[in-house]
């Protein structure tokens, strides 16, 4: 998945540097931001998005007149509450932002058809990370390889712990089942931590989650495979293979990506303000303090990957298309 | 990693030296806990910039003190004005407010304080001794076992309904119906929300709590004043009443101990809340009592059981956080952020890498509870004076504070309106002989019960026999049957004796 486009090359770096200089000037000229930012997080306090946003905002704040980020958490309905509230009840003035997990939340968007339109109402403009979906088990599980899991799932239906049914990792395991005639029964646990507990206490046979969470568990969990063409955390997961490579399948790359978002109307109304945000955010990735804070939050720095507005939009639209393809398995409506 | 005596002594000495962080934490926790709508995790999130700037141990001491004190003080408004400060204190209203009505507000407060502090102390020390065992316990109790544990709490509806079974069950079913509002636990599809975004998360606890208890109570107080009915008995606060409360605690020491352990066990299970512990403790306390008929009339063990269990939860919640690196609740999740920010990774290795933090957390909790004693006992004397405040002052105060509390939790004006709607429902319920606690139990426990039940059924792949597939669950089922059958058998025996 890591392509040339994702890396910040020399020219891009020079471009960013130039843009940063312009942005610095823009901050000084426009007087933006005039007050602290109010950020909607559509997941719970203390969760992955919360930790990630906080590790990012210190560096960003330095580039934005020292303005602080104030967080509000609206975790209901797989993020639907946070998104609807942001679009409908927060002023589109570029001082209100959203920090979301694009993958699961765009799947929610496709399945629930909420009262906002993407990308007409909301625009992601700065991707922070790419966290591949993976299949994992307890360290002492009888499943040593992903092939063992599929072989057993052909004999009996395996219970799979997942954070939510509308999640990239859930789509991954369903797609694997489709491709190999293995039977998987998804059991949603409502969050990464309860999913880990369900695998640890043997309630579920296997688990599917973004890989960073499984890696955080260290030796207690074993990652068996990733839903991506390359495992960027191979060194930390005992070289867990790409699932497509093992089975010759063509399951799309499935990952979670946290990103900053803004009202699309704010971009139209205040292009100068948006420019400041768009140009300062990439500079945070060069800040050693951000990487340090990211690591302190227990997240593997290999997953840090900047993505601009175009990359975010392409990914989000891809997720919506994927969710529509698996609608029957992912939603209550049959 | 085993610690020797000198290391333990050092941990205690270091924790006591953090008194400057513990005392403000306790004071803030007490203040915040009294107000419905202000949860410890929200307070800690607001104070995150402060705690992140503090030294790790001082930040932990501050957060833990705030958390424990918050659990303690939720019982104060429950006892004095029938308004639980949090869901965990809802069961305290049943007997606590009845004691206040009988002129025993100060004793009830002392019972609540001592049960809370003793419950917290006993369980923090127990955790230090039993940590390896307790850390595994959370991994043994799974969805099936949780279904039965929550059913213990739900059977309290039937207990409360004992005086008028039909009304009690109607109240409970109404609560369960309300608990089903919101997005479903499997597909996240909204149900019965009528398009209100504010209901997607389910029926919000704080406005329901405030409406059913606070607003309805204020309306009842107003009615009693205008109809000339005598208000709750009140008399001047005396130290003798504090001593009387302490005497009651000594008499019921065993009750405090076992309900604290019950709270600890529930707290160890990730995701299980204080209100499960307090309702189950109340139900079990009544079950094993020789005088179950006194429960609900202002019976001291009816205050002790939920309060002790509620605080037993505090140490239990931190066990999975420290031992397996998975937060047992939202407050623990916020504490984890602070620890991770300071470069400390929680989990099994913490006990080798930073024993001063891993064990220190529970030592700090023990010290926080010890320091709470001199702060709260005088509080009982002065707080009990609330009942002497005239109705024309206390009612607007209750309404003002609680409606602000309804807003503060999620910052929705909708929640203020909802609190008023539930106030009217609560008032009608009270006037027509329905028990508002039955409704609340349904709202509180219904969604959690549904979540675990659906999870268990999905694990069983649709086979209902999965509910009887685990030895631990089967033992719990047997205990549940006994706990339902025993009171019925006892009542029948008493009726037969009376007839003879």
Write the layout of secondary structure elements.
The complex is a heterodimer of chains A (334) and B (500).
Chain A lengths: L9 H21 L6 E5 L6 H16 L5 E5 L6 H10 L6 E6 H11 L9 E8 L1 E8 L7 H10 L2 E5 L5 H13 L3 E5 L3 H9 L5 E5 H6 L4 E6 L16 H5 L7 E2 L1 E6 H6 L1 H14 L3 H9 L7 E4 L1 H17 L1 H4 L4
Parallel strand pairs in A: 1-2, 1-3, 6-7, 6-8
Antiparallel strand pairs in A: 3-11, 4-11, 4-12, 5-8, 5-9, 5-10
Chain B lengths: L4 H13 L1 H16 L5 H7 L1 H6 L2 H18 L1 H7 L8 H12 L3 H36 L2 H18 L4 H15 L2 E2 L6 E2 L13 H23 L11 H13 L1 H16 L5 H14 L12 H25 L5 H12 L8 H4 L1 H4 L1 H24 L7 H20 L2 H19 L4 H24 L11 H29 L1
Antiparallel strand pairs in B: 1-2
Helix pairs in contact in B: 1-19, 2-5, 3-16, 5-8, 5-15, 5-16, 5-19, 6-7, 6-8, 7-8, 7-15, 8-12, 8-13, 8-15, 8-19, 9-14, 9-22, 9-23, 10-22, 11-20, 11-21, 11-22, 13-14, 13-15, 14-15, 20-21
Task: Describe the protein.
The complex is a heterodimer of chains A (334) and B (500). With 334 residues, chain A is an alpha/beta fold. Chain A folds into two domains: 10-130 and 257-333, 3-Layer(aba) Sandwich (D-Maltodextrin-Binding Protein, domain 2), CATH 3.40.190; 132-247, D-Maltodextrin-Binding Protein, domain 2. Chain A contains 14 helices and twelve strands. Chain A has helices at residues 10-30, 48-63, 80-89, 102-112, 146-155, 168-180, 192-200, 211-216, 243-247, 264-269, 271-284, 288-296, 309-325, 327-330, and strands spanning 37-41, 69-73, 96-101, 122-129, 131-138, 158-162, 184-188, 206-210, 221-226, 255-256, 258-263, 304-307. In chain A, the strands form two sheets. Chain A has a six-stranded mixed beta sheet with strand order 2-1-3-11-4-12, sandwiched between helices. In chain A, strands 5, 6, 7, 8, 9 and 10 form a six-stranded mixed beta sheet that branches. In chain A, helix 2 (48-63) crosses helix 11 (271-284), helix 2 packs antiparallel against helix 12 and helix 4 crosses helix 13 (309-325). Chain A is globular. Chain A starts with 9 loop residues before the first helix and ends with a helix. Residues 1-24 of chain A have low confidence and may be disordered. Chain B has 500 residues and is mainly alpha-helical. Chain B has one domain. Chain B has 23 helices and two strands. Chain B has a two-stranded antiparallel ribbon with strand order 1-2. In chain B, helix 5 (56-73) runs antiparallel to helix 15, helix 9 packs antiparallel against helix 22 (436-459) and helix 11 packs antiparallel against helix 22 (436-459). The mean pLDDT of chain B is 84. The chains are: A alpha/beta (334), B mainly alpha (500).
């Amino acid at each position: 998945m890591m392509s040339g486009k994702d890396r910040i090359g020399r020219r891009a770096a020079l471009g960013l540097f130039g843009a940063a200089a312009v942005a610095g000037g823009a901050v000084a000229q426009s007087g933006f931001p005039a007050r602290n930012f109010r950020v909607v997080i559509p997941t719970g306090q203390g969760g992955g998005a919360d930790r990630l946003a906080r590790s990012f905002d210190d560096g960003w704040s330095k580039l934005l007149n020292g303005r602080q980020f104030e967080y509000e958490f609206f975790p209901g309905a797989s993020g639907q509450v946070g998104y609807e509230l942001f679009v409908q009840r927060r002023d589109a003035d570029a001082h209100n932002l959203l920090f979301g997990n694009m993958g699961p939340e765009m799947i929610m968007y496709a399945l629930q058809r909420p009262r906002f339109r993407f990308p007409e109402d909301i625009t992601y403009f700065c991707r922070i990370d790419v966290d591949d979906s993976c299949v994992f088990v307890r360290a002492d599980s009888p499943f040593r390889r992903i092939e063992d899991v599929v072989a057993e799932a052909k004999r009996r239906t395996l219970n799979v712990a997942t954070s939510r049914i509308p999640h990239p990792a859930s789509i991954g395991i369903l797609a694997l089942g489709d491709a190999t005639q293995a039977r998987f029964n998804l059991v949603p646990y409502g969050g990464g931590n309860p999913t880990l507990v369900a695998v640890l206490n043997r309630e579920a046979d296997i688990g599917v989650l973004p890989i960073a969470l499984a890696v955080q568990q260290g030796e207690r969990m074993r990652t068996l495979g990733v839903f991506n063409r390359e495992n960027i955390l191979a060194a930390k997961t005992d070289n867990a293979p790409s699932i497509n490579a093992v089975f010759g399948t063509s399951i799309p790359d499935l990952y979670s990506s946290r990103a900053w978002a803004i009202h699309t109307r704010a971009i139209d109304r205040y292009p100068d303000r948006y420019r400041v945000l768009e140009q300062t955010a990439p500079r945070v990735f060069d800040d050693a303090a951000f990487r340090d804070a990211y690591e302190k939050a227990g997240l593997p720095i290999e997953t840090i990957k900047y993505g601009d507005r175009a990359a975010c939009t392409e990914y989000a639209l891809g997720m919506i298309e994927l969710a529509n393809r698996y609608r029957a398995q992912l939603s209550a409506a049959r | 990693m085993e610690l020797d005596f000198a290391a333990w002594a050092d941990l205690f000495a270091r924790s006591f030296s953090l008194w400057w962080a513990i005392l403000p934490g306790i004071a803030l926790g007490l203040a915040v806990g009294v107000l419905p709508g202000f949860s410890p995790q929200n307070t800690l999130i607001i104070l995150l910039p402060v705690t992140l700037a503090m030294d790790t141990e001082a930040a932990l001491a501050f957060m833990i003190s705030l958390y424990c004190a918050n659990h303690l003080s939720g019982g104060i408004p429950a006892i004095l004005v029938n308004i639980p400060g949090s869901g965990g204190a809802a069961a305290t209203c049943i007997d606590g407010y009845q004691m206040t009505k009988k002129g025993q507000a100060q004793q009830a407060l002392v019972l609540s304080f001592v049960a809370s502090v003793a419950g917290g102390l006993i369980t923090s020390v127990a955790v230090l001794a039993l940590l390896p065992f307790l850390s595994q316990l959370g991994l043994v109790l799974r969805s099936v076992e949780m279904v039965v544990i929550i059913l213990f709490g739900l059977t309290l509806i039937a207990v409360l309904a004992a005086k008028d079974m039909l009304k009690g069950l109607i109240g409970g079913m109404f609560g369960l119906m309300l608990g089903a509002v919101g997005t479903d636990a499997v597909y996240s599809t909204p149900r019965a929300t009528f398009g209100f975004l504010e209901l997607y998360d389910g029926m919000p606890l704080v406005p329901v709590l405030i409406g059913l208890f606070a607003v309805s109570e204020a309306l009842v107080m107003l009615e009693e004043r205008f109809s000339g009915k005598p208000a709750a008995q009140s008399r001047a606060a005396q130290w003798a009443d504090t001593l009387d409360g302490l005497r009651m605690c000594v008499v019921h020491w065993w009750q405090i101990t076992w309900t604290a352990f019950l709270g600890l066990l529930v707290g160890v299970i990730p995701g299980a809340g204080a209100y499960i512990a307090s309702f189950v403790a109340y139900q079990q306390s009544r079950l094993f009592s020789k005088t179950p008929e006194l429960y609900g009339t202002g019976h001291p063990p009816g205050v002790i059981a939920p309060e002790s269990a509620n605080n037993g939860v505090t140490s239990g919640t931190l066990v999975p956080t420290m031992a397996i690196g998975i937060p047992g609740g939202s407050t623990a999740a916020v504490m984890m952020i602070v620890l991770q920010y300071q470069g400390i990774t929680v989990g099994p290795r913490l006990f080798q890498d930073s024993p001063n933090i891993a064990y220190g957390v529970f030592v700090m909790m023990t010290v926080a509870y010890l320091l709470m004693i001199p702060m709260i006992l005088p509080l009982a004397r002065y707080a009990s004076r609330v009942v002497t405040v005239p109705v024309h002052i206390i009612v607007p105060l209750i309404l003002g504070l609680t409606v602000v509390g309804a807003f503060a939790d999620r910052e929705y004006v909708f929640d203020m309106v909802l609190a008023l709607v539930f106030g009217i429902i609560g008032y009608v319920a009270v006037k027509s002989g329905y028990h508002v606690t039955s409704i609340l139990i349904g709202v509180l426990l219904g969604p959690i019960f549904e979540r675990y039940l659906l999870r268990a059924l999905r694990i069983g792949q649709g086979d209902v026999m999965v509910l009887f597939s685990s030895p631990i669950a089967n033992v719990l089922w047997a205990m549940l049957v006994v706990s339902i059958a025993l009171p019925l058998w006892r009542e029948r025996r008493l009726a037969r004796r009376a007839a003879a």
